[in-house]
Amino acid sequence: MEDDAETASIYELLQLMSSLNDTRRAILLSLAHIYPRSVSGVQLSRLIGYSGKSRSLYRGVISHLKENELIQIDQLTPKLYAIRVNNEHPLLSVLVELCRAHGETARKIYLKALEEE
Amino acid sequence: MEDILLKQARALYRDRLRIALAAFIFVFAITFYLFYSPEIITLGVVPPINLAPSGWTQGFAVVASVNTIGFFSTIVLMALIFRFWSWAFLPGPASTFTLAVLRGILGSQSTIRYTLGKRFRVTLENGLQFDVNCRIKEKNTGEWFAYRLVSTKIQSDGLRNIALRHGFGVKDDRFVANVSNDELHLRTFLLTQAMMLVGPSI
What we know:
heterodimer; A: mainly alpha; Arc Repressor Mutant, subunit A; two-stranded antiparallel ribbon; B: alpha+beta; Yope Regulator, Chain: A; 2 domains; six-stranded antiparallel β-sheet; 6 helices; 6 strands; 51% helix; elongated
């Protein structure tokens, strides 16, 4: 029975992820892998290979993701934000769980990419 | 990958902006001529300070005249017409694209009404409605043809949970989301699904 609920969540997660465009998907996937670590806007735009300005990423995609409660943003200083995936979201907690269980190597790659500053 | 129709719409919109600007300059010149070539009707206002050369006083009379008021109100009217035009209409290919996407996912059972203000109002089979508002260009991000999905007010207990599970936020009892044009198809689908889930309880 529990197994059934879990596959249902995975199905919904799959639907949700496929409904998002590549930028949003890349953001959620990378943030879910490195959870509970948070990143700044510039780090995030580098991490997902965003070619535009990080400011336009910020005002568009990130604020939209926040509106839909997919990510959380903490304002550290007026100019510095910490962005991380919203683990209280019913589906993204499943994603984070999946990444934790199976995404060890992927997490290493993401974290290595963040180190080089 | 951008849809070919949206590419056309974007080019069309840009062209129309250029044409509008050119027409504006042309009409500006004509209005200028029309308003200042007839007799100048002064307002009878005297210059606040004594201007030494008499030419200055005459010039002031031209500036503070009924003609100037008329001229500026015409300019404002033109600007307003332009604002209305860009607020109300979507370039043809873009509305074709939007309607095709919505029709494709919702089928013939739902009705879609395209109204002024670049808004598509969708009524589902169960009577619930949602709006798809299109913006030609986002100011902050420079993104072309972004959409905002807003549902009608829904009273339901599990509203927030259902919204989150379909990737939507909740804002005063409505499902809301900003979506880009390549997401429109699947996110409308998810919105429809979410609204069917909350539907029967009403």
